[in-house]
Amino acid sequence: MKIRVRGSHSVSLAAEIGLARLAVQFEGEDAAATMAQAQSLANRIQAELRALPADALERFSFEAPQRYSWRPTAPDGSILPPRTTVTIEITAAFRDFEVLGERTAAWGAHPGVQLRGVEWSLTPETKPANADAVLAEAVRDARRRAEVLAAAAGAGEVRILEIADPGLGSHEPVQVAEQYLRAKSVMDAGGETVSPSPSSIWLSAAVEAVFEA
């Protein structure tokens, strides 16, 4: 007798990295002055990041400035002088969440800075081991389900014949899905920045298996 089952397992883990996403953005009629204003603030933020303790910050990156120009229209239909918007996207991955909270609070209160949010994740050092453990539990869950079905049907011990991702055929690799929960910084009624708090990281795996009993 063949028994086809699906095994799954999920685990919630504490976040180890907080990836802050923010942008420096300014708008003005003078394109050169607007660019200089954005670059000046971006350089200031970069200097602040470089000054942080090495164990507080995993990495950071600054994208090249993006410039967009247009000519606005007045209510009477007349064309106004051209305006330019300059945006510099920034990411910073923190290991120290207290420092992350301090920096996002300071940046959020600064004119010209937009907080995009924070993404939580595991470190590259711990993610593989946890993913392997979750996958192994999914396989054990599949075997347990097959054993329950076999016992209920009055069959003997089960022997695995095939294992694969859900919906796939033979010899396809099983995979582990990772859900990064996001938490955005928000503004309270008084205009103060509310620092993000860590969210759990969910690792989940599912397999389909065929057993013989």
Automatic annotation (TrEMBL):
It comes from Gulosibacter macacae. This is SIMPL domain-containing protein. Gene3D superfamilies: Protein of unknown function (DUF541), domain 1, Protein of unknown function (DUF541), domain 2. It holds the Pfam family SIMPL. InterPro entries: 26kDa_periplasmic_antigen, SIMPL/DUF541. One of its GO terms (biological process) is DNA damage response.
